[in-house]
Amino acid sequence: MNNDLKLLEELVQSRDTAFIASVDTDGFPRMKAMLAPRVREGLRVFYFTTNTSSMRVRHYRLDPRASVYFCDEQQFRGLLLTGTMEVLEDAASRRLVWCEGDEEYYPAGVDDPDYCVLRFTAREGRYYENYHSENIEIA
Question: What is the CATH number for 56?
Fold first, then answer.
C-alpha cells in the first residue's frame, strides 16, 4: 500500500462517527452510524457500546460477520474493514469502555442489563482516496 498505516490510524482517530454493518436473518447487509469506538487496538480491534436489546446485537449473535467504515467526507477518503463482531456482556469489557455520562443511555449504570460492548476484529481492509482503492493488510 502506498499509504502508511499511520495515515489510516489518523483517519480512524479523527472521526466522531463510524458506520457498522451486520447481516440480517434474510442475508441482507444492515448499516448504521455509531459513535466512534471508545477503545481500539490499532486497526485490528475496536470496541463500541450499544443496547443489548438492539437489532444489531440480535444480528451479531446469529451471524458475527461485520464491517466497519470510517469516512472523511471533506477529503473524500475512507477505510472499510471487514471481520467479525462479538457481543460482550462481562464486567471487565463493560468497564473498559464505560464513560461518565453513559447513565443517560443506561440508567442502571455500568451493570445495566441493556448495556453491552461490541468488539470488532478486522480481518482485512480496503482504503479509498484520490479515485483509487486498494486492499490493505491488517497486522
Answer: 2.30.110.10
Helices within 83-138 (DSSP H only) = 91-97
The pLDDT tens digits of the residues spanning 22-43 come to 999 999 999 999 999 999 999 9
Q: How many domains does the chain have?
A: 1
pTM of the model: 0.94
Give residue 115's domain range: 5-136
| Alpha-helix runs per DSSP H in 15-90 | 55-62
User: Residue 67 — very low, low, confident or very high, per pLDDT cuts 50/70/90?
Assistant: very high
Distance CA 81, CA 19 (A): 10
What confidence score (pLDDT) does residue 5 get?
84
Residue 3 grid cell: 499509504
What does the block give as the cell for 134? 486498494
